[in-house]
Specification:
Order of helices and strands: HHHHHEE
Distance between the termini: 17 Å
Number of strands: 2
Mean pLDDT: 93
Structural class: mainly alpha
Number of helices: 5
Shape: globular
Strand content: 5-15%
Low-confidence stretches: none
Largest sheet: 2 strands, antiparallel
Helix content: 40-55%
Strand order of the largest sheet: 1-2
């Protein structure tokens, strides 16, 4: 699944996969929390790409703001739903000014 997410990140010009290497510990947790939504794999990949961008921001890594704004609009489920599923917290991510992005929920592992 991580390779699909990396491909999506590159395709949407969010970040280059060489800058996003390593393990993505949040993937398993997020997949577990969205499984009852019965989403197609393409939708899951978009959600995981978005959550990966949030995780990268929280970890101090580069993500393209403009592309993130577009990805947020393309989400198959809203950030409100992601907060209800305890994937995102109710707290905004600092430093992102062109769109409201919420931090990861504490139950989603960042590292």
């Amino acid at each position: 699944m991580q390779n699909l997410v990396l491909t999506e990140l590159e395709k949407r010009k969010l970040c280059h996969s060489s800058k996003c290497s390593g393990v993505f510990p949040w993937l398993k947790s997020v997949l577990e929390k969205i499984k009852e939504k019965k989403l197609p794999i393409e939708s899951k990949v978009v959600i995981l790409a978005f959550i990966s961008c949030v995780a990268f921001f929280q970890d101090g890594r580069y993500v393209d703001y403009y592309s993130l704004n577009k990805l947020e609009r393309d989400l198959p489920i809203t950030q409100t739903t992601l907060k209800q599923l305890e994937i995102q917290s109710p707290f905004l991510l600092p430093g992102v000014n062109n769109v409201k992005i919420f931090r990861l929920h504490p139950s989603v592992p960042l590292k």
